[in-house]
Each structure stands twice: as structure tokens, then as C-alpha cells.
Design a protein that fits this description.
peptidyl-prolyl cis-trans isomerase activity; about 30% helix; alpha+beta; Chitinase A, domain 3; PPIase_Pin1
Length: about 120
């Protein structure tokens, strides 16, 4: 159960050329990531976010197919976390969301994300 100091969130991460780690569970060699511009990653996520908000796509299903984070295996679920446990832009965006709300595009050193607060 989330406390005032903790939130629970799921996310979809798309890595790009500028990401600090150029590999992921679905791209262990980093070939796709090295050829993905930040603009292209943002554009993919914006389109996906629109599909989720319009009901054409399910957040958890999309996360398990598309996210470059290993949390994809859990539908993007990151579990509970508190202040200081995530990169600052990610943390600030998550804490600003209401439960079940989906963020706009959030940029971190890991790549670009959309975040869904779940608790």
C-alpha cells in the first residue's frame, strides 16, 4: 500500500541514441537503440499515448511489447518507490500524477517515458 511518501507506477521506456545505456532486454546489442533518434522515440511514444488514452491500446500490454525497461515483463510495473529512488524528472512527474493518470512524455538519462501512476 502506498504511503504519502511513496507512489507506485508503471512506465513505458523507449531508449534512443542519447540514452545512457544503449542496450535493453529486447535489443541486447543496442542496434535499434543506436539508430533511434530522440525525436523518433518521442514521436513513437506520443502516438502510443494517444492510442492508450483513446482506448485503442492497453497500457500494460503496450509496455510488455514495446518498453525497453526490464519492467516490461510486469506490464511496466516498477512497484512502490519514494523520493530519491528514481531519476528526478521521472520522480517529479510520477508524484504529480493522480492514480490511473498517464503522464506526458518524460525525458531522463535512460530515454523517454510515459508513466502511469497506479497507487
Amino acid at each position: 500500500m502506498a504511503t504519502k511518501q511513496q507512489v507506485r507506477a508503471s512506465h513505458i521506456l523507449i531508449k534512443h541514441q542519447g540514452s545512457r545505456r544503449k542496450a535493453s532486454w529486447k535489443d541486447p546489442e543496442g542496434r535499434v537503440i543506436l539508430n533511434t533518434t530522440k525525436e523518433s522515440a518521442i514521436s513513437q511514444l506520443k502516438s502510443l499515448r494517444d492510442d492508450i488514452l483513446s482506448g485503442k491500446a492497453n497500457f500494460e500490454d503496450a509496455a510488455s511489447r514495446i518498453s525497453d525497461c526490464s519492467s516490461a515483463k510486469r506490464g511496466g510495473d516498477l512497484g512502490l518507490f519514494g523520493p530519491g529512488q528514481m531519476q528526478k524528472p521521472f520522480e517529479e512527474a510520477t508524484f504529480a500524477l493522480k492514480v490511473d493518470e498517464i503522464s506526458d512524455i518524460v525525458e531522463t538519462d535512460s530515454g523517454v517515458h510515459i508513466i502511469k501512476r497506479t497507487e
